[in-house]
Specification:
The chain has 69 residues and is mainly alpha-helical. Helices cover 46% and strands 6% of the residues. The chain has one domain (10-67).
């Protein structure tokens, strides 16, 4: 693979955040607080999804500029 096709942007390291954060079980190992009647675990899972989408979108936007010629 030619060197100009590789993406070695430091922004790619941010993609580890949505992987590492949900693995920290101490963040959601509780029943309280509740939001709209749902325990912490359920709405925190939605927050993890939003974190992943936001992080992926940010990394995409920051790295696509380097691909333009």
């Amino acid at each position: 693979m030619p060197d100009d096709k590789r993406d070695r942007s430091p922004w790619n390291w941010l993609l580890l955040v949505p992987i590492a954060i949900p693995l920290m079980t101490f963040l959601y190992n509780a029943d309280q607080p509740q939001l709209l009647g749902f325990p912490l675990f359920y709405w925190l899972q939605i927050a993890f999804i939003l974190l992943g989408v936001a992080t992926t979108a940010l990394v995409y936007q920051m790295t696509k500029r380097g691909r333009r010629r």
